[in-house]
Amino acid sequence: MGSIISSRREDAKVVVEAALDYEELVQLRGEIDNVHLFSEKVADLETNISSRGKNEATKYFLIPRHLRKDLSIREPVSCQRINTPDKAIFVYVVNRNVFHGVKKLR
Length: 106
Prior knowledge:
Number of strands: 6
Strand content: 25-35%
Structural class: mainly beta
Number of helices: 1
Helix content: under 10%
Distance between the termini: 51 Å
Number of domains: 1
Largest sheet: 2 strands, antiparallel
């Protein structure tokens, strides 16, 4: 888990200096572009996990109804697991609907 040490404005962006555990840096696999910062404390929406199959071996992360708008679930979804000493954080990347805001012709 990391901490933001300092931040400053530069043009239209914010430059952030962060300190994090080596293990967390390794999980980036050398990627330095398109990196997103998030905090566990911001994930404040409760949701459920659905279990199916023999001995409930298959688990589904349920997306709350109001968060499903504008998602194109027909396309591939990618997932990443981030391990911390006491938690497993799952991050899913879903493409938004490319036709967002376009009205259907009748």
